[in-house]
Amino acid sequence: MDLMKEIWKKAKNDKKKIVLAEGCEPRVLIAADRIIKEGLANVVLLGDEDTIKKAASENNANIDGAEIIDPVKSQKLQSYADYLYELRKNKGMTPEKATETVKDVLYYGTMMVKTGDADGMVAGSVHTTGDLLRPALQIIKTAPNISVVSSTFIMIVPNKKYGAEGLLFFADCAVNPNPDERQLAEIAVSTAKTAKSLSGIEPKVAMLSFSTKGSAKHELVDKVSNATKIAKEIDPNINLDGELQADAALVPEVAKLKAPGSSIAGCANVLVFPDIQAGNIGYKLVQRLAGAEAFGPITQGLAKPVNDLSRGCVPDDIVNVAAITAVQAQNI
User: Fold this and answer.
1) Which residues of 280-303 are buried (b: 16+ CB within 10 A; e: fewer)?
2) In contact, 68 and 23? CB cutoff 8 Å
3) pLDDT tens-place string over residues 31-42
4) Rounded Cα distance, 240 and 204, in Å
5) Alpha carbon distance 11, 23 (integer Å)
6) 291, 284 in Cβ contact below 8 A?
7) What is the pTM of this model?
8) Gap between the Cα atoms of 47 and 250, Å rounded
């Protein structure tokens, strides 16, 4: 499966309006050119119009099809500020502070998504993850029955006997350092939803541990085992099992020995790691040692999609994340 090709196809079939908040950044403008040409999304660029147009010209980026909005000069600035004040007044927000806050491109873009003036937002080429997630958590907030924002990586491994013909989803590898039982359960539910919406596969979720079905006794094992039960309570229809060691989750021969009767063992395509250390180390080992393609991190758990970029991203990365964001928006 050429997953990105499928994601592009889905994005084109139901075009969404995606905000590229860092509209003055050359890499973003080059990406915007391609997004428009490919018909992946209706693009909104935020920032000073003259600066954006000058940067686009200098980088041979055709952004004629994009909507350009300068938050400082926007006719919606005051209405967004009023909305932000109402949302945050119990947290110390004042009308004056709300007006200044919404002039920030990340806050303005987040308000566009919150109010339905846009379907999703992409940023992070020049801002940190914290800069991006702060307004998203304050304004958009989390999806129903979910209290934690997390991330997933799409992993495409050359050995197609693992996962869904080589396609797997790894979570959480980038956001939550040490999720508790409830958070770990919610990460599993969010990742299953992400996997289904982006790839169309039927998620088979393995809750990973250093133990399989009680083979070891430890509080860390209890955490994963309890998270498995909670995830099934949150979504009784989820196809999930745990706790499972990685080999039991992926290798049928090992699964028969360690977890006979499990519907997930030996055929998992969604791997939920117990903490960020395991997840981050795991995806990088698979990427480097197995030669896997890694796409992400993809943000999940928000009520509406907002996705982060690496500050080392290239235009192709931005194009792909915009397409992913558009497909996420189709499934809200």
Assistant:
1) bebbeebbeeeebebbbbbbbbbb
2) yes
3) 999 999 999 999
4) 6
5) 21
6) no
7) 0.91
8) 47
